[in-house]
Amino acid sequence: xxxxxxxxxxxxxxxxxxxxxxxxxxxxxxxxxxxxxxxxxxxxxxxxxxxxxxxxxxxxxxxxxxxxxxxxxxxxxxxxxxxxxxxxxxxxxxxxxxxxxxxxxxxxxxxxxxxxxxxxxxxxxxxxxxxxxxxxxxxxxxxxxxxxxxxxxxxxxxxxxxxxxxxxxxxxxxxxxxxxxxxxxxxxxxxxxxxxxxxxxxxxxxxxxxxxxxxxxxxxxxxxxxxxxxxxxxxxxxxxxxxxxxxxxxxxxxxxxxxxxxx
Length: 263
Ligand SMILES: NC(=O)c1ccc[n+]([C@@H]2O[C@H](COP(=O)([O-])OP(=O)(O)OC[C@H]3O[C@@H](n4cnc5c(N)ncnc54)[C@H](OP(=O)(O)O)[C@@H]3O)[C@@H](O)[C@H]2O)c1
Prior knowledge:
The chain has about 260 residues and is of the alpha/beta class. It has eight helices and nine strands. The protein has one domain: NAD(P)-binding Rossmann-like Domain (Rossmann fold, 3-Layer(aba) Sandwich). About 45% of the residues lie in helices and about 15% in strands. The chain has a seven-stranded parallel sheet, sandwiched between helices. It has a two-stranded parallel sheet with strand order 7-8. Helix 1 packs across helix 6 (about 215-225) and helix 3 runs parallel beside helix 4. The radius of gyration is 18 Å and the shape is globular. NADP nicotinamide-adenine-dinucleotide phosphate (NAP) binds next to helix 1.
């Protein structure tokens, strides 16, 4: 597969104020890319700009990715300031913890808005510009839970399964345009994700064992962008879970029901 150059690559990264998105931005800038980085917390985006190896190649725009005007602004800024767009990384995400029965329609809608509708609509907005880009790509940061769902994270799993299905369909649709659609599925990662969950109620899920660093996840995602690899499952445990679920779904169901809750 063609190797994509990072030097002068024009990118948008969502969820850039912490964790994986911050690392993606720093690593892309260090490799010579130009990045528009977005998230809601403006002070964190300013920190990011201070930490970037070449701040002149970074534009930060604060806003909520669920806001259609912000999404339009991101794409327009890429057109005006970079003269185009080669890479969209949909990374912003949130979680909620607790059994579905203890949740609410609002919790479900919020998780789906941030993790599914917002990245899908940003993709729609960016497609015309991406079509004119150099070796364009869309990279969706999903989760191992897009492949095997677990209890007490039903809304999150549903949102990540949805982005997985969307990515597979879009990849096929965009093959003739030469646009890669890359799905990156991390397992537990050190970031602010657990502290930022929008709700914790009722019985809690089992805690993941071991965690990758956000920097390692970002490195793997960027490698997939460079090589055009379409699907990346990052941890050995994650790969094991996916294969177990494919080969022995009944056993997999039993195991997550038995061990999926905190005890
Ligand atoms: N950490 C894990 O264990 C793990 C495992 C698998 C997959 N993932 C996925 O990895 C991605 C990145 O998560 P992370 O681990 O790096 O967590 P994180 O440190 O909490 O980062 C999440 C990012 O999303 C942004 N964000 C959240 N809601 C937003 C909104 N409405 N509008 C704009 N930005 C928003 C946050 O910024 P603001 O709060 O400043 O808006 C932050 O920059 C997510 O899609 C997550 O589902 C994480």
